[in-house]
Amino acid sequence: MDPTKTTNYLIHFLEERGTSDYIGESITQLEHSLQCANFALTSGASEPTILAALLHDIGQFLPLDAAKDMQIGISGKSVGRVGHEAIGEQYLRSLGFGEKVCKLVGSHVAAKRYLTAVDEGYYDALSEASKLSLRFQGGPFQGEELESFRRDPLREEMVRLRKWDDEAKVVGIVEHTPRAAVYRGMMQRHLEDQRIC
């Protein structure tokens, strides 16, 4: 797919599909994604990390057939799509995004499992929706899963993205958060660079 077309499609997709509720939270999926990307941008993160922050939850609201679209639910309340991180990672790979973007998107649930294993206070600070979904995501890492995550060269960036994800749930700051179109040039550059590699 052409980088310009892919970029235009994704920006439009985020703005159109992201207006739905962000499961169990008080903001939309779009506002959550934009807040997360803005945290990455203002922290001076690399462009692939900023794009991963923007797109980390795309697997939550991609249209999928009913058989695959299983929701994690408790007492009739959805707290997310099963495997949304892997769905998002695979989708972005299919569009031509680079390894770092895809791996960061695919690891944001693993980073939550890691942090709940190594930081006692981290679990307590999670939103109720995040605590509920953790149960269905395998709970805190143990044993080899924990050691494998510790050894990953991208561990620090995975953890940073996860923390931005956790913080990006602030109500009432729409007018202070850059819109998706701000990332258009960055996204197109990234996709063009992947075609050259």
From TrEMBL:
UniProt-listed SUPFAM superfamilies: HD-domain/PDEase-like
Entry-linked InterPro entries: HD/PDEase_dom, HD_domain, OP_Dioxygenase
CDD domains: HDc (cd00077)
Every HD domain range: 30-112
Protein name stated in the entry: HD domain-containing protein
